[in-house]
Amino acid sequence: MLAANGTWLAMKGRVLDEELAGVPAGYRVEAVHALEVPGLAAERHLVVVRRVTGESV
After folding, report:
1. Torsion angles phi and psi, residue 20, rounded to 5
2. What is the rounded distance in angstroms from the CA atom of residue 46 to the CA atom of residue 50?
């Protein structure tokens, strides 16, 4: 469960637009940060998701 003003941080490999578009109502993708992991030759991202203020879920 996420606090009313909480933030989800999701680790992802490849980020797909279809997945980002599927974030439930009441939440929004606030940022996507590309990450470089030493010794790993693969895509990694940090996705920041927040609850939209004033909406309950």
Report:
1. -65, -35
2. 13
Give the chain's mean pLDDT.
89
Least Cα distance to 29 among 2, 1, 42, 10 occurs for 10
- Cβ atoms of 46 and 10 within 8 Å: the answer is yes
What is the residue type of 6?
G
In whole angstroms, how far apart are CA 49 and each of 27, 33, 38, 39, 41? 7, 12, 25, 27, 26
Taking only the tens place, the pLDDT of each residue in 3-18 is 888 899 999 999 999 9
